[in-house]
Amino acid sequence: MYKTMEQIEREYDGNWVFMVNCDKSRGSLVGGEVVLHDPIKANVLLAMEAYDHYPNLTSFRYVGKIPEGIVYVL
Amino acid sequence: MKTITIDLKMYGNLIVLEPELWKINSGGFGDFTAFIDTGASRTTIDKEVLHRAGYDVESGKKTMVTTAGGLSLVNEIVIEKLRIEDLVLENLKVYAHTFPSELFISGLIGLDILSQFDVNFLFSKDLIEFTEIVGG
Description:
The complex is a heterodimer. By secondary structure, chain A is α+β, with helices and mostly antiparallel strands. Chain A has one domain (2-63). Chain A is built from 2 helices and 4 strands. Chain A has a 4-stranded antiparallel sheet with strand order 1-3-2-4. In chain A, a hairpin with a 2-residue loop joins strand 2 and strand 3 (28-38). The mean pLDDT of chain A is 93. Chain B is globular. Chain B has one domain: Acid Proteases (Cathepsin D, subunit A, domain 1). Chain B starts with a strand and ends with a strand. In chain B, 7% of the residues lie in helices and 54% in strands. Chains A and B meet through strand 2, helix 2 and strand 4 of A and strand 1, strand 5 and helix 1 of B.
């Protein structure tokens, strides 16, 4: 079922997600269908193999806020 | 000269892009998240994301790179296309490296890509403008 990113971020907070049939606007994901989700990144990447030949726009990303206390320094 | 305007989004304290990688297996694009890193000379993408997109990461030329964290061994591969909104870059050399899940993103966009455009960060409007450099 297609959902907006607001819905996805609420429902799958703290998960890595793989989405299909995605829409984007101004470079940002607007929504899509979440077909895989797991708090463990490797589990989603492994399961994504089933969608290797999926032709439409897909998305793989972490959904959620960065844990408090973590600051990126590149 | 083509100019695209995208949303300027922050993740933590860094600017995040949502580029799209051409997937060899499917003939379509796969979106992922990456930080803009003007301190990086080269773009690096999570090797598992590249592998899932059909790229033969392990056959890439091995290169030792220096980072703030020390030395790392990466594989250099060529990706067929990378898309940011309507801008498509072809046959890009990128580094493939493991991105720990604690980074929460799958790539770093470096100066090798950024320098192909005039990039304007409009923090007051939460927008980024990319303008193609003609003849550059």
